[in-house]
């Protein structure tokens, strides 16, 4: 890796400090990053991978970066994509959220952490895709920091992509102006553009463009699912880590109804068409954002339902590490008492209600409350990743590893009650507990070391196992051995496989 070294004097916490900067030549120009005090890792933050998607480029596929002269300072995260102001919510404290500033429509930046000293090293590469329900999120979140994984011999990359109305608005005029006769999946196209950037540039940072793993959590995991499914990402990666999210149901929106929603969105803002929408400020567009959903079956980025793509073996072949958390049920409304929950199940599932209540019982209010959380967990996350693991394992073309994160994340006050909550596994998996202010115990530090080593091994080889770690068996649909990641790591048959199979059968019969 060709680097230029120079020293910049800076004031930090009131004292003078020497910061070593390193310059790398990429296709669009030179970028300068900052080395850690021990010189073992260099971070390059805020590297543009596409032109700013503003003005006439709003709601268009990402366009190439304009090359620059001189050295671009890449020492701070670029702006997070347009969204509402972040605020701690429910189980998520500030460490799980983007910085308050900057937030901008000009958001197509990525970050690289590397410990490589030469491009000849060809270190394995991990590309992180954030969650946020396709409505929020950004790569500048503290728990997404890449230094610790870089110290494990990986080149860590985190990327931004457009969210909300900026990333997923479909409209007939947008479809008409598109050379691909499609609209709405701009956020996914941003992800593809970032992966192409990695393919073209990561060798300059000591990374191997032919050994790339994509990883994500929640909507980021759904994005990973989309990248594995889309023909646009063919050849850009060979492994995938999917944490709590996939799209094997039939709830993905087709292009026509998404366009109708886009027309209604425009009318809600008093816009008669696309030209008016492009004249509105980002803040004005945010006022009408409700109703804009995530990925669309647009016939281009996603040519058909993801379940059908996998069923027909058309997906990009990858080794897969996937799973979900024990306590990540999300309730969008008040908890129902036992009587009301049973009534809801009977109304929703009819003749199958008895089967559902067998696995999600409601003998009293407390049991009903837990069943509501468990059913929510399985419907939103568990069934999706379970389906992905099963379909890919049955194909037998690649290796599949499945986990269940069960550690009740320590917390004080309000945070103490959430258990193994949604996103709770992320700082463990990427060796970033230090960024989260919780009363960590020795068992947490051990789990962090175990999980992050599993993840790093998988990124390097497609196999999480190594000497000194509990053996993580390849997932097989008949034995259903999964790795439980809790107070200790141990492989066991999935405990609720019958419940998941039952719900899968009920949903399949009703589709």
From TrEMBL:
Family note: Belongs to the type-B carboxylesterase/lipase family.
PROSITE patterns for the chain: CARBOXYLESTERASE_B_1 (PS00122)
Pfam families: COesterase
Keyword Translocase: no
Keyword Signal: yes
Listed SUPFAM superfamilies: alpha/beta-Hydrolases
Enzyme Commission number(s): 3.1.1.-
Enzyme class per UniProt: hydrolase
Species whose genome carries this gene: Imperialibacter roseus
Carboxylesterase type B domain ranges (all copies): 21-490
Protein name: Carboxylic ester hydrolase
Cleaved signal peptide residues: 1-20
Keyword line: Hydrolase, Signal
